[in-house]
Design a protein that fits this description.
Shape: elongated
Order of helices and strands: HHHHHH
Structural class: mainly alpha
Radius of gyration: 33 Å
Number of strands: 0
Number of helices: 6
């Protein structure tokens, strides 16, 4: 092999080595970029799940408080209602409607809770419509009669039972959520370590 041929062969080997190193570095950078994007995406999804769970828990608690008030109101109205009297109590449930309109109840709850909350909502709307009917009739000169009182007492007794039952369901759901996505300082430390490892930093 001539001197020129030897030098050309050496240069070729160097070129191949340099090209291989460049491709390896590029491939490593690509994997690092993909890994970083995947990690960022995972952290974002985890943050969104945590926020969704916290929002759902807040809505459950507000609804629980409202149901407790409605149960007490139905009990009080049941004991006070008399023939000839005008009923002023209202059974609107805005917190219950907020819970139903939120995607959280469909995402986090089971079918039993979802159906129970919907059924309670329909029941409360029926009670409210019935009370409005009797209020309107009283304003038109048709006071509440004995049969009307008996009917309303039966509806109010049902309201007491149903609101209490659903309230207990919501209490159980709140207890269940306490054990889901519960973040500790160790969790944060492990995630921080993962991010440092992805960036090539020492822990």
């Amino acid at each position: 092999m001539t001197f020129v041929a030897s030098v050309s062969a050496d240069r070729w080997r160097v070129l191949v080595v340099d090209t291989g190193s460049f491709l390896l570095a590029a491939f490593s950078n690509f994997l690092g970029s993909v890994g970083g994007v995947s990690l960022a995406f995972w952290l974002q999804r985890r943050h969104e799940r945590r926020q969704s769970t916290e929002t759902y828990s807040t809505q459950l608690y507000g609804c629980r408080q409202e149901l407790n008030e409605l149960r007490e109101r139905s009990e009080k109205t049941h004991g006070e209602i008399r023939p000839g009297e005008t009923i002023t109590a209202s059974f609107d449930a805005p917190s219950l409607q907020t819970l139903l309109s939120s995607p959280g109840i469909q995402r986090h709850s089971g079918r039993g809770i979802f159906v129970s909350v919907i059924s309670l909502s329909h029941h409360l709307k029926l009670v409210e419509n019935t009370l409005q009917y009797f209020r309107f009739a009283s304003a038109m000169g048709q006071p509440l009669t004995g049969p009307g009182v008996a009917y309303l007492k039966a509806e109010l007794s049902s309201t007491e039972r149903v609101t209490e039952y659903v309230r207990k369901l919501l209490d159980d759901e709140l207890q269940r959520l306490k054990h889901i996505e519960k973040v500790t300082s160790k969790d944060d430390e492990q995630i921080a370590g993962l991010m440092k490892a992805a960036r090539g930093e020492s822990r």
